[in-house]
Amino acid sequence: MKIADLKIPGNILLAPMSNVTNLPFRLMCRKYGASLTYSEMISSNAVIYESAKSINRGISCEDERPLGIQIFGNSPEIMTKAALRIEQIYQPEIIDVNFGCPADLLTKNGCGSALLRSPDLIYEIVKELSDNLTTPVTAKIRILEDIDDTLKIAHLIESAGASAITVHGRTRQQQYSGKANHEYVRKIKQELSIPVIANGDILDEASAQHTLEYTGCDGIMIGRAAMGNPFLFKRIAHYLGTGELLEYNECSQRVADIREYYGLMEEYKLMHTVNIKAQAQWFTRGMRNGRHIRNSIAVAKNIDEILQSLEKMCKHAK
Ligand SMILES: Cc1cc2nc3c(=O)[nH]c(=O)nc-3n(C[C@H](O)[C@H](O)[C@H](O)COP(=O)(O)O)c2cc1C
């Protein structure tokens, strides 16, 4: 897939997810085949005020290129200033704009999906960013109830100069409930010339292939299904490449992944930013023997105990 002049080595993307897609997790997704990864969303206002915590969300490394950094805000001027600052610090390959987050924290300030009610402002934001940055600008939206309103926004984003658009097939009101509407995504793909990336409910090999085929989109973006499961990218890439399901040992794969993840968290000195047990629960989601695993994580006193009990469980499962 190509976004502006940037060649992306594939078409399976990791979704930006606040408090989830930190650098170690993104690196693991990359290792397993994610073609492009994005930072967690960064507040433009916070960047302007030089908030270290917010700016640090853009930290990356050479192994993570190409890198997308996502910003949110509601003022074309402030967002452009913030994006220029981000360009200066991190030189990302892509700057993405969040027009999809339904969380009150953003929408009460007119950011994220609240902007979907103001198509003209969306246009201004994307235009101002595209005109002033050297980095390609992309946008991530949700759908609206009405297909024509949704198409109007998608067209405005394209004509304002965006280099690609990601569409999560749910409305703001749906939050994360119901099913993603890929019919709307397909219609957007049919009308736009820039790359369109389909997002929402891509859970496994079959849904990845179906979404690509049904929508005709240039790429797919995976969010929740990848939480604690970076290996999913390898499974999907393998299936799309060969038509065959990858054989692997679920239990030992998950344990190896959580071990590597903790190792990277330590290497990048990020351990203090996460709840270790909650992360362990993500990495073991969907494993057989779920209740037993959750209990052992709950009583573990530290990472070593978590890993030891998971390893023991794998041995018994053999
Ligand atoms: C915990 C969590 C955090 C998220 N944070 C962001 C974010 O920072 N920026 C964004 O554009 N979307 C964010 N999203 C939405 C996802 O990127 C994605 O659009 C959504 O989860 C639908 O895809 P999925 O069905 O594959 O999960 C978040 C979703 C979750 C579950």
Q: Characteristics of this structure?
A:
single chain; about 325 residues; TIM Barrel; 2 domains; two-stranded antiparallel sheet; 14 helices; about 45% helix; binds flavin mononucleotide
Q: Could you walk me through the main structural features you see in this protein, from its secondary elements to its overall organization?
A:
It is built from 14 helices and 11 strands. The protein has helices spanning 23-31, 44-48, 52-55, 76-90, 104-107, 119-132, 147-159, 182-191, 205-215, 232-242, 250-267, 276-284, 290-299, 303-317, and strands at residues 2-3, 6-7, 12-14, 37-38, 42-43, 67-72, 94-99, 137-142, 164-168, 196-199, 219-222. The chain is an alpha/beta fold and 318 residues long. Strands 3, 4, 5, 6, 7, 8, 9, 10 and 11 form a 9-stranded parallel beta sheet that branches. The radius of gyration is 20 Å and the shape is globular. The protein folds into 2 domains: 2-242, Aldolase class I (TIM Barrel, Alpha-Beta Barrel), CATH 3.20.20; 250-317. Helix content is 47%, strand content 13%. The relative contact order is 0.11. It binds flavin mononucleotide. Residues 15-18, 20, 40-41, 70, 98, 100-101, 140, 168, 199-202, 222-225 line the site of flavin mononucleotide.
